[in-house]
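Good day; I would like, with your permission, to put a structural problem before you. What I wish to show you is a protein chain and, alongside it, a tokenised description of its three-dimensional fold. Please examine both parts with care and let me know of anything in them that strikes you as inconsistent. Thank you for your consideration; the sequence and its tokens are set out here:

***
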Amino acid sequence: MLENVDLSLTLDSNGYKGNLKTLEVKLGELQRRAWELKIPIIFVFEGWHASGMGEEINRFILPLDPRGYDFHTIDKEYLEDELRPFLMHFWTLIPKKGRNAIFDRSWYGRVLVERVERFCNEGEWKRAYREINEFENILTGTGTIILKFWLHIDKDTQLERFNLRHSDPQKSWKITDEDWRNRNKWEDYTNAIDKMLKKTSTINAQWTVVESNDKRYSRIKILKTVAETLENELKK
């Protein structure tokens, strides 16, 4: 799936500004409508290191009513309890009726970083595809809307952004030795991502791959996808 992604797509300043305000207003309206209809919504954001995910999430939540959403950042420490099934960590974070839950990383860590870095065994990550699909199917079957985004960049763009972070004192905290080590496993991660997209993109919880070499294009695509999907789902 990743081989067919066109990372040359861009959006000029006029196209960006012309769409941004309209989409932000629309998103705020849709959040209120979902609240009135008591429909919970889950937004899952995954992506390469330096794909701009943090910036996209920060921009995404600007038009939302902060009283209506919960934001969850998931890292390895959050999942340190290995005695329980890994999805149990997330059941408590599922939004109540009418609320939104925004995930910066998610349960997909099991088939990405945990798989590649061998934080879990082969049987666990292979079994996780079925477990995740069943988990999301239960949620969508009871009325939850799930939108999943993979922010995709190429290897050269990642290197350029890594170097910019490293050289900027105000951004150097964003780059770690672990990021550089993970970069050396680019092909392993690519294979894991591609398999994840193929095995867990279902009718009711599809993945949207976002071309993120150009951040303006990336931002507008996310907002458009959310607006169009929610409008269609809320009509049902």
